[in-house]
Write a structure and sequence with these properties.
The chain is an alpha/beta fold. The protein has 2 domains: 184 residues, Rossmann fold, CATH 3.40.50.720; 100 residues, UDP-galactose 4-epimerase, domain 1, CATH 3.90.25. The protein has 11 helices and 16 strands. It has a 6-stranded parallel sheet, sandwiched between helices. The chain starts with 8 loop residues before the first strand and ends with a helix. The structure holds nicotinamide-adenine-dinucleotide and serine. Serine (SER) binds next to loops. The site of serine (SER) has 9 residues, from loops.
């Protein structure tokens, strides 16, 4: 059943990850369950295996499922990527090139996420949309290439520079901003968290509901309305320090304690901006966030507690 997708189906790669888990749910709600083909390297109910490095399998699914729209989420994130730089380049760049080739051949539209990791230490604390992109991480470099390919590919390809995403339905997948997710699980289970960045580390963050809504809103905008920023739009949710996150959690759990023991991920965090200027996304497709820090914390605690009570 296609609810409002006139022809063809939607392919999601990396569908079992932090974003895919919720994006597939939202797309199935919007277009009908049959319209969305969820795929990943791993197997799970409602999700078929597809390795984005396997061009024959990609072609097969494009043809057999009549794919007209792709959400390409398969990637290695910053912390995992820095440990495996060659694999990170292969999956994030060659995997993306495979999806671009498939989209081109079959006339499909493509969404491919970028990240705040495209910025480097020379970026102002409030990152502009248009600024030199000199990331220090291999992960950031793969995202810069992804943005450039979006504009040079000759297809309808769009992306968002997601901030660190906070959600409760699936674990965070090996990024630097994972502390802002792990902290909730540890606060509720142990009353304590040992945080791997300094207390004063301030990064752009976003609640998953805002990120999913942004993705769907961007894909709903007519192509002609979008500028070359479509390779990776800046979008802001809210920015806060690790210490401010702890204090917001303590509104719910006054006995919660947190220690700070920075590891290598501190260096990646220090190379990224503190805030995001999303004026261009606001002007071109009316982007506007709904969740501030306290609202994110309220939602995370409530949802994790009710999930625990149900299990
Ligand atoms: P994740 O790590 O949670 O999920 C990625 C998924 O890709 C995993 O389920 C993994 O099994 C799958 N995968 C890995 N290699 C694959 C391959 N060869 N073929 C098919 N699947 C493969 O990541 P996520 O957080 O859901 O991120 C999705 C996208 O959004 C990535 O491009 C990431 O860079 C970007 N992004 C995420 C965040 C964030 O905070 N989560 C922020 C900025 C950008
Ligand atoms: N949240 C992601 C990471 O930390 C940013 O792309 O890797």
């Amino acid at each position: 059943m296609f609810m409002d997708l006139p022809s063809g189906r939607i392919l999601v790669t990396g569908a079992l990850g932090q974003i895919g888990t919720e994006l597939v749910e939202a797309l199935r709600q919007k277009h009908g369950p049959e319209a969305v083909i969820a795929t990943d390297l791993r197997k799970a109910e409602g999700c078929q295996i597809l390795d984005v490095m396997n061009t024959d399998e990609i072609k097969k699914v494009m043809v057999e499922q009549h794919i007209t729209e792709i959400y390409h989420l398969a990637a290695l994130l910053s912390a995992t990527g820095e440990k495996n730089p060659h694999l990170c380049w292969d999956i994030n760049v060659t995997g993306l090139e495979n999806m671009i080739a498939a989209a081109k051949e079959h006339g499909a539209r493509l969404f491919s996420p970028s990240s705040i990791a495209v910025f480097g230490p020379d970026c102002p604390k409030v990152a502009p949309q248009i600024t030199p992109l000199n990331p220090t991480t291999i992960y950031g470099k793969t995202k810069v290439v992804g943005e450039q390919l979006a504009v040079s590919s000759g297809i309808d390809m769009r992306g968002i520079r997601y901030p660190g995403l906070i959600s409760y339905k699936a674990p965070a997948g090996g990024g630097t901003t994972d502390y802002a997710v792990e902290i909730f699980h540890n606060a509720l289970e142990n009353g304590h968290y040992d945080c791997f960045v300094r207390e004063d580390t301030k990064l752009p963050m976003m609640y998953m509901d805002d990120a999913i809504r942004a993705t769907i809103e961007l894909m709903d905008i007519p192509f002609e309305r979008l500028s070359d920023s479509r390779g990776g739009y800046n979008i802001a949710g809210c920015s806060f320090t690790a210490g401010e996150l702890v204090r917001s959690i303590q509104r719910h759990l006054p006995d919660f304690t947190c220690t700070f023991n920075p590891d290598i991920r501190q260096q990646y965090a220090d190379s990224w901006p503190e805030e995001i200027d999303d004026g261009i996304a606001m002007n071109e497709w009316r982007w506007s966030p709904r969740f501030n820090l306290d609202r994110i914390v309220d939602e995370m605690i409530t949802n994790l507690e009710s999930r625990k009570n149900r299990s």
